[in-house]
Amino acid sequence: MPYTKNGKTYHCTVEATLDVIGGKWKPLILWHLGDSVMRFGELQKSLPGVNAKMLTKQLRELEEDGVIRRKVYPEVPPRVEYSITEFGKTLIPILEALCTWGAQYLGTQNGGKKADAYQCPAKAGQKKK
Predict the structure, then answer these.
(1) pLDDT in tens, 22-43
(2) Distance, CA of 128 to CA of 96 (rounded, Å)
(3) Closest CA to 82 of 117, 113, 47
(4) What is the rounded CA–CA span in Å between residue 75 and residue 23?
(5) How far apart are CA 123 and CA 129, in angstroms?
(6) What's the Cα-to-Cα distance from 53 to each of 58, 59, 121, rounded to whole Å?
(7) Which of 24, 22, 46 has the alpha carbon at shortest distance from 33?
(8) Separation CA 80–CA 124 (nearest Å)
(9) Contacts of 115 (CB under 8 A, 6+ apart)
(10) Using CA atoms, how far apart are residues 59 and 29, in angstroms rounded to an integer?
């Protein structure tokens, strides 16, 4: 049975999930926003290699999907802050599972190093658990 959301048709719920969090930057954006509020420049600095155009595109898509919030303050120059929504926070366990799986994968591919020797850069530098 097909599902429709935001003008897109999905044939599987996994397809919808991957559409929302898939790609190189979206999971990392969500990971960084997991427990903080960040401005555009802060996000860009925390994601080495992302350009402003791509970051803007990814933030707009995440906002459209209801997983992040964009708050504009009426100041000159304008101040914009991004945070994760309550609904978006439900993705954190999924991202943690991806991080754990990636560590295990890297451990099996690199001479059997222990999986806990690998961490997501965001987890090592930003996450406080």
Answers:
(1) 989 999 999 999 889 999 999 9
(2) 13
(3) 47
(4) 33
(5) 9
(6) 9, 10, 22
(7) 46
(8) 26
(9) 100, 103, 104, 106, 107
(10) 8
